Amino acid sequence: MAKKLLIAFAAMLVLSIIAFAAAKPNFSGTWTMDRARSFGMPGDMMQVLTITHKDDTLEVETKITQPNNERTIKDTIIVDGKEHEFTPPAPPGGQTPPKGKRTATWLPGETGITVTDVTTSQTPKGEVTTQNLRKWIINGQGELVIDSYVDNPNISYEAKRIFKKQ
After folding, report:
1. 2 in helix, strand or coil?
2. Residue 14 in domain
3. What is the pTM of this model?
4. Could you tell me if 101 and 85 are in contact, meaning their C-beta atoms sit under 8 angstroms apart?
5. Domain limits for position 105
6. What is the rounded CA–CA span in Å between residue 78 and residue 106?
7. pLDDT: is 151 or 3 the higher one?
8. CB-based contacts of 74: which residues, under 8 Å, 6+ apart?
């Protein structure tokens, strides 16, 4: 009898762990970038994300700080697998703001999200289309990790930002 009870308890424990691990991450909170462990962006740049995550919508406020320059960008990400138009931030120098389309989906097992932005910008040399694929997860240490892969006809690069919750 004790052996059956022990097996039943172990099975319940395993199922509880699986259920807990399968819960969708909630990205809400204020997150400060760990500059020492992040790469692929200007060395003097810092970021703080303030995220409100409700259902499948993330309201994201990004504060970017560089010497003699601080700006805040507000954005909305809808994680429903459908393409949505969005307005990317305008590049510096008064250029025409790009146009964008975004698709965000849950990763298998709903362990994180992927966000794919396709933007079209007018340049002196004509139209340039850029794709930015970002993967958002909360790792085992409770950190928000955003891997980015950016591609356009002129450049391709990878960036990783690691954020700690405040």
Report:
1. helix
2. no
3. 0.83
4. yes
5. 26-165
6. 10
7. 151
8. 59, 60, 61, 62
